[in-house]
Amino acid sequence: MMQGKKRGSFLTLIAGILAIAACVVYVTVMYKLPIVFVLLIAAAALAAASFVGVNNTVTTLAPAVIAFLSATAVIWAVNPMVNQLGYVVSGLDDISTVIALIISGVLMAASMIVAIVASFMPQTEGEV
Predict the structure, then answer these.
(1) Is the pLDDT of residue 58 over 90?
(2) Would you call 124 helix, strand, or coil by DSSP?
(3) Which helix (H) or strand (E) holds 117?
(4) Percent of the chain with pLDDT over 70
(5) Among 32, 37, 38, which residue's Cα sits nearest to residue 98?
(6) 50 near 123, Cβ under 8 Å?
(7) What is the pLDDT of residue 2?
(8) Is 5 helix (H, G, I), strand (E, B) or coil?
(9) Which one, of 101, 36, 114, 102, lies nearest residue 69 by Cα?
(10) CA-CA distance, 45 to 49, in Å (whole number)?
(11) Which end of the chain is less enclosed by CB atoms within 10 A, N or C?
């Protein structure tokens, strides 16, 4: 399973792990949308499928798709919390109400960045 893997393949797997970590933290956010869970779980599943090597097309396209899914998850995660963020900025509420959103958003963004970096690297030994 590990034979023939390049650094890009491991970075793709790390992007999937970051997506799952973001999903776990997102559970504790005050106002959440189910689509965020779907996007993050899809990103993690795609990372796992890519690492296992389902087929060459999946392995090659996975990092770009994972980056797209993670970026979309960040956008959807912030949407229902815009009011809370405004309350915190204006001093009407404490930062503790949005800290879970900030942490999960950072994890989603990290997943996206790692996936973007992985998309520029070869995934398997046969790629150039």
Answers:
(1) no
(2) strand
(3) helix 99-119
(4) 91
(5) 32
(6) yes
(7) 57
(8) strand
(9) 36
(10) 6
(11) C
* Per-residue model confidence as pLDDT tens digits over 72-107: 999 999 999 999 999 999 999 899 999 999 999 999
Q: How far is CA 46 from CA 63, 83, 113, in A?
A: 9, 33, 16
Residue 110 token pair: 């990290």
Residue with tokens 């005050």, as numbered in its chain: 30
For the cut 60, the answer to whether the pLDDT of residue 25 exceeds it is yes
Helix (H) or strand (E) holding 11: helix 7-26
* Total length of the chain: 128
Q: Which two tokens stand for residue 51?
A: 């690492």
Q: Which residues, at least 6 apart from 79, have a Cβ–Cβ distance to it below 8 Å?
A: 33
Q: Write the CA distances from 39 to 33, 66, 73, 86, 125, integer angstroms.
A: 11, 9, 6, 25, 29
Look at phi and psi of residue 19 and say left if phi exceeds 0, alpha if psi is from -120 to 50, else beta.
alpha
CB contact at 8 A, 24 and 69: no
